[in-house]
Amino acid sequence: MTDAGQHATPLRTLAHALRFLAIVAVEAGHRDGWYRYVGRDGEVIGLADFGASAPAAVLYEHFGITAAHVAEAVLRLARPLRARQDPRRQAAVA
Question: Which domains, and CATH codes, for the chain?
Fold first, then answer.
């Protein structure tokens, strides 16, 4: 995905549509570059800093780069989005 030049308008349109989706980006490296794509309501799971040294499985668990953590993030983000799509769910979600 790119946000330069001729693709700027389609990305703005996509960003507008994505406000009804739970967007979670997973990055095994540093997470900074993903925030512009997940938007203010999305979440980025990845490294917050550099310099840790251990087997990948240990690092992934330490930094929360796991399937369980991703699933939790999606479910947490999806609750308010479902209510936004159907106002009758407001009370049930809260």
Answer: 21-93 (3.40.50.920)
